[in-house]
Amino acid sequence: MSDIKAAIFDLDGTLVDSMYVWHKVDVDFLSERGFEVPDDYSKAIKTMHFETAAEYTIARFNLNETVEDIVSVWLNMAVNEYAYNVRLKVGAKEFIEKLKADGLQLGIATSSKPFLAEPVLKNNGIYDYFNTICCTSEVGRDKRHPDIYLRTADKLGVKPKECVVFEDIIDGINGANTAGMYTVAVYDAESSSEKEVLKRMADKYIMSFEELL
Predict the structure, then answer these.
(1) What is the pLDDT of residues 126-140, one digit of tens each?
(2) Domain 6-18+87-212: what homologous superfamily?
(3) Looking at residues 36-50, what average pLDDT do you find?
């Protein structure tokens, strides 16, 4: 990895312990409309950007609401948690500080919106370490595809082969692999059932960022 010049981080489930937020949003949103959360629902929308997830939700539950209305409700429910309560994973801040000290360019590649990503990074004191935040909504395709990673690398001014990507889900690792980047899968409780697959797919698998310090 001596030729690595940039590190690209997924946000939810990789850098921050935030997956509980979305489960809470799913439960509260659907219960207010008289539904329980189906077993496969959260997994189905996990890698979608908000608008696509809203379209899927409207179709699945036959809701008489617009995509814009649903996205607004979801974000209002989540933003307070991101701004005040969501915390970094163990060792994440120290690892990011190390990479920055080593001269690497740092980027975020996320399915979240900037107004969720920015508050949680600021609340945890690492916002200023990142050179760019790139969202899947910018590229119009989810993380199964390389677009988000290629866009982030372009913003950082580096070649794909000069990037290491940290992700916690299969789709993210697949997209980063397709982009031609070195991949590190990060353990998260929400994707623990995918651990063995992630180990096979990624160039490296870690249980914690402390392993890299």
Answers:
(1) 999 999 999 998 999
(2) HAD superfamily/HAD-like (3.40.50.1000)
(3) 89
From the number of C-beta atoms within 10 Å of its C-beta (0-12, 13-18, 19+), residue 206 rates as middle
Q: Which DSSP helix (H) or strand (E) runs through 202?
A: none
Nearest to 173 by CA among 181, 183, 164, 163: 183
Query: Alpha-carbon distance 133 to 110, whole Å?
Result: 8
Looking at the DSSP bridge assignments, the partners of residue 165 are 8, 183
Query: 28: which 2 tokens?
Result: 């509260």
Residue 132: CA count within 13 A, CB half-sphere: 21
Contact 48, 56 (CB under 8 A): yes
Entry field: residues in the chain: 213
- What is d(CA 107, CA 132) in angstroms, rounded to the nearest whole number? 5
Phi, psi of 15 (to 5 degrees): -85, -35
For the whole prediction, is pTM greater than 0.85?
no
Amino acid at 146: P
With 0-12 / 13-18 / 19 or more C-beta atoms within 10 angstroms meaning exposed / middle / buried, residue 202 is buried
What's the pLDDT tens digit per position in 1-41? 679 999 999 999 999 999 889 888 999 999 999 999 999 99
| Burial of 102 from C-beta contacts in 10 A (0-12 / 13-18 / 19+) | exposed
